[in-house]
UniProtKB/TrEMBL annotation:
InterPro entries: CYTH-like_dom_sf, CYTH_domain. This is CYTH domain-containing protein. It comes from Candidatus Portnoybacteria bacterium CG10_big_fil_rev_8_21_14_0_10_36_7. SUPFAM superfamilies: CYTH-like phosphatases (SSF55154). PROSITE patterns: CYTH (PS51707). Residues 4-60 form the CYTH domain. Gene3D superfamilies: Hypothetical Protein Pfu-838710-001. Transmembrane segments: none annotated.
Length: 60
């Protein structure tokens, strides 16, 4: 972390290519690279509100 405060925002991405194109269009840039990958559990066929419930698996 480079500052006293930070914000993490989570949301589902339906199409990663469309999302990457949007980031390019708004001239987004990577400030700090991640050295891990997060995977989020989302059960099939059940109500699952990621604002209330989330299960993250971090692969270092």
């Amino acid at each position: 972390m480079s500052t006293k405060f930070e914000c993490e925002v989570r949301f589902f991405i339906a199409d990663i290519d469309v999302f990457k194109k949007h980031l390019k269009n708004i001239k987004a840039k990577l400030l700090f690279p991640y050295t891990f990958t997060d995977y989020y559990y989302k059960p099939q066929g059940k109500k699952w509100n990621p604002e209330i419930n989330n299960l993250r698996i971090r692969d270092w």
